[in-house]
Design goal:
The relative contact order is 0.14. This protein is of the alpha+beta class. Strand 2 and strand 3 form a beta hairpin. It is globular. The chain has a 3-stranded antiparallel sheet with strand order 3-2-7. Strands 1-4 form a two-stranded antiparallel sheet. The protein contains 6 helices and 7 strands; from the N terminus they run H-H-H-H-E-H-E-E-H-E-E-E-E. The chain has a single domain, classed as 2-Layer Sandwich (TolA/TonB C-terminal domain), CATH 3.30.2420. Helix 3 packs antiparallel against helix 4.
């Protein structure tokens, strides 16, 4: 009888612990919410986390503020010019970037426009691109990896050249990287 009670208590304890663990585990909705939050912050330029000089700290702080000023819905010319000026200043002054290695951060991306011909033909789909992001904050080569329509391929490449981004960082310097990108064209 004592043995059966001990087993009953053990089973009750395991069931209670399992229920508590299940209640504390993430739901699909929680995971989706966390992913959405990460997506919103994916365009945030990180705070300085590595040792740096006071000049580097001020420059990085100014650069972060310039990045935050770029509206994801509509990039203004003055905000873009300020960011580009700060990237150029960091390169010219040989500043050590005060963050660990980091991928390029796209701050603004234009929406590709349909050509009249493609709209009339009701062409839908995506253009796959390989885009070279240069250390000075400009776009280098744009290669069409998989096209859709010659006119839309050209529009996609031109749209990619308008990207506003913080260059990738490696060993505390801005570096060039190739980035995959897709441009979607959908008629609803």
């Amino acid at each position: 009888m004592i043995r059966e009670c001990q087993i009953c208590l053990l089973v009750s304890f395991v069931v209670a612990c399992s229920a508590a663990a299940f209640a504390q585990s993430q739901t699909d909705a929680d995971r989706a919410a966390q992913t959405a939050i990460k997506a919103v912050h994916s365009r945030d330029i990180p705070e300085a986390s590595l040792p740096c000089t006071p000049d580097e700290a001020k420059w990085w702080s100014d650069l972060r503020m310039a990045g935050k000023a770029i509206n994801p819905a509509r990039a203004g010319k003055s905000e873009t010019e300020k960011l580009m000026h700060l990237i150029k200043e960091g390169i010219e002054e040989s500043y050590q970037i005060p963050v660990p290695d980091h991928y390029a951060i796209v701050l603004w991306r234009a929406v590709p426009q349909y050509t009249d011909e493609a709209r009339n033909k009701k062409i839908n789909g995506s253009v796959a691109l390989a885009v070279e992001l240069l250390p000075d904050g400009t776009v280098g080569e744009v290669k069409v990896a998989q096209g859709l329509d010659p006119g839309l391929d050209k529009i996609a490449a031109e749209t990619a050249r308008k990207l506003i981004f913080l260059p990738a960082i490696k060993n505390r310097k801005f570096v060039p990287v190739w980035s995959p990108m897709t441009m979607s064209f959908n008629i609803y």
